[in-house]
Each structure stands twice: as C-alpha cells, then as structure tokens.
Amino acid sequence: MSESTRELILSAARLTAQARGYGGLNFRDLAEEVGIRAASIHYYFPGKAALGAAVAGRYREDAAAALETMAAEFPDPLDCLRRYPDTFRAALQNDNRMCLASMMAAEHDDLPEEVRAEVRAFAEVNVAWIGRRLSAASLVTVEDSTPRAWAIFAAIVGAQLLARSRSDIAVYDSAIDTYRKAGLLPD
User: Residue 131 burial by CB count (10 A; 0-12/13-18/19+): exposed, middle or buried?
Assistant: First the structure.
C-alpha cells in the first residue's frame, strides 16, 4: 500500500463528507471510487472514526494553511476579511458542497469524540484568524475580537447552509452582501 493511496482515500472521503457528512462515509463506496478493495482502507484507517478524524484533521490543516497564505499574500487585514467569505463560497461552487467541518458539526451528537475534536478545532482556527484580522484592522478591541469573530464565522456558515439548501449560490452572495451593509463584515 502506498502513501498516494492514503491520499486518494482522504480526498474521496473529503468530497463525500462535504456532500453527505460523516454519516455518508462508507468504506465500500470510497473503495470503489478510489479503485481498491474496501478491506484495503482498513490498512490506513482502522475504522470509520479514524477515517473521519483524519479527514477532518486534514481539512483543518488545509484551511489553516490557506488562511495564512491569504494573510501573507494580502497583508491588509481589511482585505483579508473581505476575502474570507470566498473560502466558504468555493465549497458551494464545487457541486453545492458545504464546508466539511460545518457539515460534520450538524452531526455533532453522532460523531466520535476524535472527530468532534477536529470539528471544534476547525472552528477555533477560523475564529482565531478572523479575530487577529479584526484586531489588526482596529475594527474592534482585542477583548471584543473573539466574540465578533464568532459572530462572523457563524453568519458565514449559516449563509452557506441556506445557499446549499436552495442549491443557489446567489443566496450566499446576497447574505454576505447584507452582512457587509449591516456592518458585520467590512465593506
């Protein structure tokens, strides 16, 4: 078994979880998509919980890296905050998928603890990043940056959920524009 097979499994599982959540992860379907036997997935992931945690962990790591790349490419914190909603819009543009962590968060009560921990960590990474940009832009005090960041994160995730439920990315765009007009997001 190769590392590339593990990566193919993670990639297929990510797309599946973004569309159908943790409950939609199925070793047989993933194996078929990757072109291996279902039992072979157990070589890399002893069970569904391990696969779910690995997928959510990779998603968190990728998101954190993308946010730091954005901050490096666009040093103006206001510019970063204006661009942040685009990271969630991209999932909708990919066959009306959701942010993987948001999709899994909706299944919170049914998730194994190791998957829950990764879902929480994803939210915390995003909120911390938003908070740093808010503070750097002097939009709020350092003390107020975390509550405001949670509000922004929740609003964007909610807009994504509404857009997905209608299979209409224009719903997302309209919500983001409204958040800007209301002052939640910088214009």
Answer: buried
Q: 3-20 vs 27-34: helix axis angle to the nearest 10?
A: 120
pLDDT digits (tens, 9 = 90+) for 146-181: 999 999 999 999 999 999 999 999 999 999 999 999
Alpha-carbon distance of 180 to 187, in angstroms, equals 5
Contact 19, 97 (CB under 8 A): yes
Residue 138 exposure: Cα atoms within 13 Å on the Cβ side: 0
Q: Is 165 helix (H, G, I), strand (E, B) or coil?
A: helix
Q: Against a cut of 0.90, is the pTM above it?
A: yes
Residues 6+ apart with CB under 8 A from 154: none
Burial 86-117 (b: 16+ CB within 10 A, else e): eebbebbeeebbbbbbbbbbebeeebeeebbe
Spatial contact of 45 and 36, defined as CB atoms under 8 Å apart: no
The rounded distance, in Å, linking the Cα atoms of 114 and 10 is 16
- The span from the CA of 163 to the CA of 98, in Å, is 9
Question: Taking a C-beta distance cutoff of 8 angstroms, is the pair 92, 154 a contact?
Answer: no
Q: Determine the straight-line distance between the first and last CA of the chain, rounded to whole angstroms.
A: 50
Largest CA distance in the chain: 54
